[in-house]
Amino acid sequence: MNLAEFPQRADSIVQNRRGVVRRTISSTNRGRVYFQSTTWPAQLANPNLAINLEPETPVEIVGREGITLLVRAIDQGGKTS
User: Do the strands 68-73 and 38-44 form a parallel or antiparallel pair, or are they unpaired?
Assistant: First the structure.
């Protein structure tokens, strides 16, 4: 079977999914996110943002680098930033 026949790449598995911060994430420090019944290392998808994502903050997983999830904040209205 040709790998091109698979319907999705591994990266698309984590895109557009929601998680919750368990250890603070900032532009300079990786944290941890609870996602798919376990915690994962996580960092900001845009490290140029000067924000801290505190524990219990909902986030959207937009990609990954190795096992580190790339996340962005979800505001109270459900929008991402």
Answer: parallel
Chain mean pLDDT for the chain: 82
What is the distance, to the nearest Å, from the Cα of residue 14 to the centroid of all Cα atoms in its chain?
Answer: 8
Give residue 75's pLDDT: 73
**Placement of tokens 């999914």 in the chain:** 17
Give the position of tokens 């991402």: 80
Q: Per-residue pLDDT tens for 12-30?
A: 556 559 999 999 999 999 9
**Residue appearing with tokens 């591994």:** 10
CB-count exposure of residue 33 (10 Å: 0-12, 13-18, 19+): buried
